[in-house]
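Suppose you are handed a protein chain with no further information: no name, no annotation, nothing but its sequence. What can you learn? This example shows the usual starting point.
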Amino acid sequence: MLPALRQALNGFTRRADLIIRQLSYSGGRPTRLLEACQVLSELEPEERDQRLAAAGLDLAGVRLALPEPDSLRLYTGRPRRQVQSRAEEHPALDREARRRLIIQQAVELAFSITAGELREYILNALHQGHSLHSQNLPVRDARDLLLNAHSIEVATPAADSSEFRFRVTPTGQRVRSDHFDQLDEFIIELLERTADTAGTGQ
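A reasonable first move is to predict its three-dimensional structure. Written in structure tokens, the prediction is:
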């Protein structure tokens, strides 16, 4: 009995709240309704009936529906987001972590090559010639060996210049060199750029 009574009371409270809200949103001037009633009461019955009938015709297309009170939810606004603007302090790296970081940076630097370095390496290997086989590239030190392993990358646009370009053509053969037991063979050629090839990128 008590739960049913409590539920009915809650429903009544929500309906009353809805009515109060609708009245507050209606313009805040309830005296207009009272004034209209006062005017109608002073008219003759026949004229009053005509005006009420005309108003009824005007309101014939208006449909009024009240929402289900159980579906109403009071808007309380969004909770403010907490933004942590303080920079976090990271603990200092210990000696072993610093050592690993230095080694990693040194290895990355040692094994990094640029397009300019690769281009100069191939040009020095070509001397006055225009082509050579990839297994014949000279290796004088560890740096040359690294450039040798990346030699076919010389055909990328980054290694080209405005005067010449490289062309790398696979022969389909697998060969052996002084530093590799087995590797694919390529022919590396240096081609001069002409007006035609400069426009087509070939």
